[in-house]
Amino acid sequence: MTDEPLVLGIETSCDETGVGIVRGHTLLADTVASSVEEHARFGGVVPEVASRAHLEAMVPTIERAAETAGVALSDVDAIAVTSGPGLAGALLVGVASAKALAIGLGKPIYGVNHLAAHVAVDQLEHGPLPEPCLAMLVSGGHSSLLEVSDVTVGVEPMGSTIDDAAGEAFDKVARLLGLPFPGGPHIDRQARSGNSVAIDFPRGLTSRRDLERHRFDFSFSGLKTAVARWVEAQQRSGATIDVADVAASFQEAVCDVLTRKAIDAASSRGIEDILIGGGVAANSRLRAMAEERAGAAGIRVRVPRPGLCTDNGAMVAALGAELVARGRTPSLLDLPADSSQPITTVVA
Amino acid sequence: MLLAFDTATPLVSVALHDGERVVVEHSSEAPMKHGEHLAPLIARALDDAGMVRQDLTAIAVGVGPGPFTGLRVGVVTARTLGFVLDLPVYGVCSLDAIALEVVETGAAAGSFLVATDARRKEVYLASYDADGRRLEGPVVTKPAEVATDAPVAGAGPTLYPDDFGNAIAPARPSAGWLATGVSGELVELLDPEPLYLRRPDAVAGAPRKPVS
Ligand SMILES: [Zn+2]
């Protein structure tokens, strides 16, 4: 098998229907259809709405990706698809479509882990992954610290959120401040003109006692509640709320904990490279703070461009290409969609 | 060679039809596991018939009504195969496939109904004349509201014997009859679009409650 395999990747774990096509580490197409606007009025992703949208978008998105890449689908070496974790009904649309492609093209199928794909995507931008590296994945669905020795074989979880995901906290605080869904970009924008030390919001799981049991875990639920309390207290006293200051102070608290724990996790294992992925990796303050603090600790930071950080098909194709290049065994046609696929299972 | 399948009930059913007859038919009872069973059954059907994917000339899929997750597995499989193999894709109401079997096997003497499980104590229902022409439906309804002594096919009579006392076979749609219907132009051809009949359960976000 070629070490520059042509792979089509499908991602439908949440509300984006993503199809990517890569050749080795080269990105040829990254096509995404999003149903985010259909969910906005519900303040969060509605699974049945997402599943219906995936079904409608699936084939047109495959078609557009093939056109963009300028390749014939019959030339692909393998199909990769997110088999989990994610929304069960949403995953199932992508997995079923990927199987139909595998049958229709007579090519192998790889059902891959969504989180490992978030890690592998960086190869499209910065080349081969440093081995090992410490991956911090932060989005509306995940907040994890992972030790990645070989992304095609094993990913070892070091820590994760014990309540809300980081991106979820952004969405909830945005809602509280009257900002639209999804909240991340709006908080980021507001925070630029705000004072990040105006309000001293709590840093979850950073007390000495918490660090004993949850050294590399996160908690954002208390922070979200603290922001809500603060806003309500201001409202009761009739004071106007400086949205920019609240956004900046909240964002500072999230980024402080994330970067602190990521660097601590890397240092504890002697790992010299941190990779940040997931939608929250697009946050400008997180990127800046990670660069600054990691630099001071002698650790390099890799962050793919924002378009590759959010859920997309290219990340699945990137992981698929790596699996093919390293000669890993494909999945079987009875591959299930597993909404809680463990991170240690890279290929289902 | 027509490839037909149905995933509108717990039965995943796959058949190949050569224009004259059903060449092979495979099925498995797989509640909630349509996604795991459909593709291997298609691959097995092709193998057993000594066919390759290039032998296929059309795809037919049961579009329900039925539980949404299973329907989507069938419809996205049909659409994707049709796209990648450049084949026409036909949708068929899954209740029509049951009705065709009723008529062709002489299970009912006159007009009859088809009722399948819609969960939430409801059924998907359609009525047919003696020749299998759909008169009304499909609709989603409470069994008690449509209780009848007329012959009823589908899983409805098993689930609600008090409301549907006159059960006739079959209980499930078969891909073989679906294929026969498409091949012989005995059923109405639809777009490969799920017959959801229900809107998604979703409520706009409620106003936030204070935390303190
Ligand atoms: Zn993700």
UniProtKB/TrEMBL annotation, chain A:
<keyword id="KW-0808">Transferase</keyword>
<dbReference type="Pfam" id="PF00814">
    <property type="entry name" value="TsaD"/>
</dbReference>
<feature type="binding site">
    <location>
        <position position="311"/>
    </location>
    <ligand>
        <name>Fe cation</name>
    </ligand>
</feature>
<dbReference type="InterPro" id="IPR017861">
    <property type="entry name" value="KAE1/TsaD"/>
</dbReference>
<keyword id="KW-0012">Acyltransferase</keyword>
<feature type="binding site">
    <location>
        <position position="188"/>
    </location>
    <ligand>
        <name>substrate</name>
    </ligand>
</feature>
<feature type="binding site">
    <location>
        <begin position="137"/>
        <end position="141"/>
    </location>
    <ligand>
        <name>substrate</name>
    </ligand>
</feature>
<feature type="binding site">
    <location>
        <position position="184"/>
    </location>
    <ligand>
        <name>substrate</name>
    </ligand>
</feature>
<protein>
    <recommendedName>
        <fullName>tRNA N6-adenosine threonylcarbamoyltransferase</fullName>
        <ecNumber>2.3.1.234</ecNumber>
    </recommendedName>
</protein>
<feature type="binding site">
    <location>
        <position position="114"/>
    </location>
    <ligand>
        <name>Fe cation</name>
    </ligand>
</feature>
<dbReference type="InterPro" id="IPR000905">
    <property type="entry name" value="Gcp-like_dom"/>
</dbReference>
<dbReference type="GO" id="GO:0061711">
    <property type="term" value="F:tRNA N(6)-L-threonylcarbamoyladenine synthase activity"/>
</dbReference>
<feature type="binding site">
    <location>
        <position position="171"/>
    </location>
    <ligand>
        <name>substrate</name>
    </ligand>
</feature>
<dbReference type="InterPro" id="IPR022450">
    <property type="entry name" value="TsaD"/>
</dbReference>
<feature type="domain" description="Gcp-like">
    <location>
        <begin position="27"/>
        <end position="317"/>
    </location>
</feature>
<comment type="similarity">
    <text>Belongs to the KAE1 / TsaD family.</text>
</comment>
<comment type="function">
    <text>Required for the formation of a threonylcarbamoyl group on adenosine at position 37 (t(6)A37) in tRNAs that read codons beginning with adenine. Is involved in the transfer of the threonylcarbamoyl moiety of threonylcarbamoyl-AMP (TC-AMP) to the N6 group of A37, together with TsaE and TsaB. TsaD likely plays a direct catalytic role in this reaction.</text>
</comment>
<keyword id="KW-0819">tRNA processing</keyword>
<dbReference type="InterPro" id="IPR043129">
    <property type="entry name" value="ATPase_NBD"/>
</dbReference>
<feature type="binding site">
    <location>
        <position position="118"/>
    </location>
    <ligand>
        <name>Fe cation</name>
    </ligand>
</feature>
<dbReference type="InterPro" id="IPR017860">
    <property type="entry name" value="Peptidase_M22_CS"/>
</dbReference>
<keyword id="KW-0408">Iron</keyword>
<feature type="binding site">
    <location>
        <position position="283"/>
    </location>
    <ligand>
        <name>substrate</name>
    </ligand>
</feature>
<keyword id="KW-0479">Metal-binding</keyword>
<keyword id="KW-0963">Cytoplasm</keyword>
